[in-house]
Write a structure and sequence with these properties.
homodimer; alpha/beta; Rossmann fold; 6-stranded parallel sheet; 13 helices; 44% helix; DNA-binding
DNA sequence: TGCCGGGATGGAAGCGCTTACATGAATCTG
DNA sequence: CAGATTCATGTAAGCGCTTCCATCCCGGCA
């Protein structure tokens, strides 16, 4: 690896001059010198040592992306990336980070302390935090004074002071459940694997829709997919048995919808003839299951990109117009809901 | 951020001593000094500046993970992470990297030159390369003299000189197709979206199985999912029409299997009654589609972990026992293949 | 007593880069 | 034409850390 010093020596000039042309300070260097240096740089395929640069500049050009996995001890997998929603979002983040000339460092952990430790070491310029757990956003923000934007993070505290991009989960869900109600459904179950964050907001949307339609809610209407691996079989068996009392299920993600649909069909229930199902996310699952899933569409890729753009704005000194950035959703109607006459 | 210098000053000692205790050089420092320093470090929550450290040591502690996306201009998505196989593998890599005390930097790009550029900048200690394109492994290795291990990378050149972890794709596929043949199938199609790398190896396995059973192969048996977005509809329509002449399809991934299954069922064909389907990977898709998919199981998480372990071995000066590391597969029999009497 | 060895500590260079500031030449202004 | 201004380039300090080497002290040994 050739260094700036070496280049300067070979060209018979100072490192300052070389550095200046590298940084495009055209008014400090004569045109011919620029030309000469640039040609030489290409010739030797100069690559800067970014550690040295960062040390000198006190920055890092790294954006830390934190996935708190504990919250996502998913029913179907211990790997948070296996959720297509997450992987698509990461894809969006990665592209946006790259296009902005930054680098992305990915941290997956269930321990916020460990994460902060690892991030601090690299002195990242900013942070994207994806964790559903209440108040982790606040906790990290309090500890770590760098630009940060959260994705899909809710807070139960009054003074949540982090920038957050997400959806209006309550409203989206309310609309979806209203769609079921409009189609004549009255016995509607709510399927999730947790009681926090996004899913809780969706739960309240579900409750709101029921209430507005004068449908009473009972705890039995809450279908909890349990994460414990060994309980899968029994858990799903029990849920399917309970589902027979319902004409429709709202599922907090397409994965759950696909899992439930598959399990119900295996036990002889027909979708949507016997039971209607509605999902959330609109990822590939919703298109390859049979029947194709009616679901709430959101743009995960865009969610990631918006988070990055907002963050980089903050890094470069631009406060976001609003702290709660909300993306649009829309109900995509396919074949998994039937109309009850 | 407190620095070593500051700490040394506050403690009335030299930076050398502080550095020594940080690095656990116990024989260079007296027990009581160690004690004092450690206590102080904790007190002020010292975090090293890794840029400075790396600069001084000429290392980086970063493992670069490169996904070459062009090869994966997937039929169903432009985001390579959306393939559950990939996301699970990344999950494995991430865990292994973290557990080994390294950091992971993820690069997704379709341009090898750009990737090398970005990697060189960070002076990564080693590289994990995931790209199906022939010979990219060789090209990167020739250009970039750092430890590197490829995943699922094939080479058409004689002198492929990179370490590679993958499967015996040919054998795995051969076994799967033999299973179809044993079940009485003679008209067996091969479904993929490309003609390179892993899928080509699988193709030869498929051909081998046919040949051994005395079944003639014709180009018509090759079902190509075309990536071009606008052609999806027509493409899938045509494939489904052609599929009516077959009693079974071998698909190079569970995703393709799920997509084909869904499309076929939409057009009134029953799986497996009218047509049997077999997939590859054994990811979540295979379990939530109906009927549940018979598929070749591989352990993507392990693939990632093995790659990392091998790489770190190389970084620390341990050559791998073999350059071609092959993981096991096994056929998982579920419900998507029927026996023809 | 004088010398040696080793344990504990410190001094200082250097990793590759950026940047504030200095220098000197050329150009401009009234 | 003196002084001010601009342009082009160089000098050197410093970013925070590691590490080679020097120094000093003390006990052991002949």
């Amino acid at each position: 690896m050739i260094t700036i010093k070496e280049i300067a020596a070979r060209l018979g000039m100072s490192t300052t001059t070389v550095s200046n042309v590298i940084h495009g300070k055209t008014r400090e260097v004569s045109a011919e010198t620029i030309e000469r240096v640039q040609k030489f740089l290409e010739e030797v395929e100069y690559v800067p040592n970014i550690n040295a640069r960062n040390l000198a500049q006190g920055q890092s050009k790294i954006i830390g992306v934190v996935l708190k996995s504990l919250d996502f001890r998913l029913w179907h997998s211990s790997n948070i990336l296996n959720d297509p929603f997450v992987s698509e979002m990461i894809g969006g983040i990665e592209s946006a980070v790259r296009e902005a000339g930054y680098y992305m460092m990915l941290y997956i952990s269930d321990d916020i302390a460990e994460i902060i430790q690892r991030i601090s070491i690299w002195n990242v310029d900013g942070l994207i935090l994806f964790c559903m757990m209440d108040d982790d956003g606040n906790r990290v923000a309090a500890k770590y004074h760098k630009p940060m934007v959260c994705i899909d993070t809710y807070s139960s505290e009054k003074k949540d002071d982090f920038v957050n991009v997400g959806l209006d989960d309550e409203k989206s869900t309310c609309e979806a459940v209203n769609y079921l109600i409009d189609n004549g459904h009255r016995k509607i179950g709510f399927v999730t694997d947790n009681r926090v964050g996004v899913d809780r907001a969706r739960f309240w949307g579900y409750r709101k829709a029921l209430a507005e339609a004068g449908i009473e809610y009972s705890d039995r209407d809450f279908f909890l997919l349990e994460p414990a691996e060994e309980a899968h079989g029994r858990n799903i068996e029990k849920l399917c048995r309970r589902a027979r009392d319902y004409t429709a299920l709202f599922c907090c993600s397409d994965i759950y919808a696909a899992i439930m649909m598959s399990a119900l069909k295996e036990r002889g229930l027909r979708v949507p003839e016997d039971i209607s199902i509605i999902g959330f996310d609109d990822n590939l699952f919703s298109r390859v299951c049979t029947p194709r899933l009616t679901t709430v569409h959101q743009d995960a890729d865009r969610k990631g990109r918006v988070a990055v753009q907002t963050l980089i704005g903050m890094i470069t000194g631009k406060a976001p117009a609003t702290k709660k950035i909300r993306l649009e959703t829309r109900l995509v109607i396919r074949d998994s809901v039937r109309k009850i006459e």
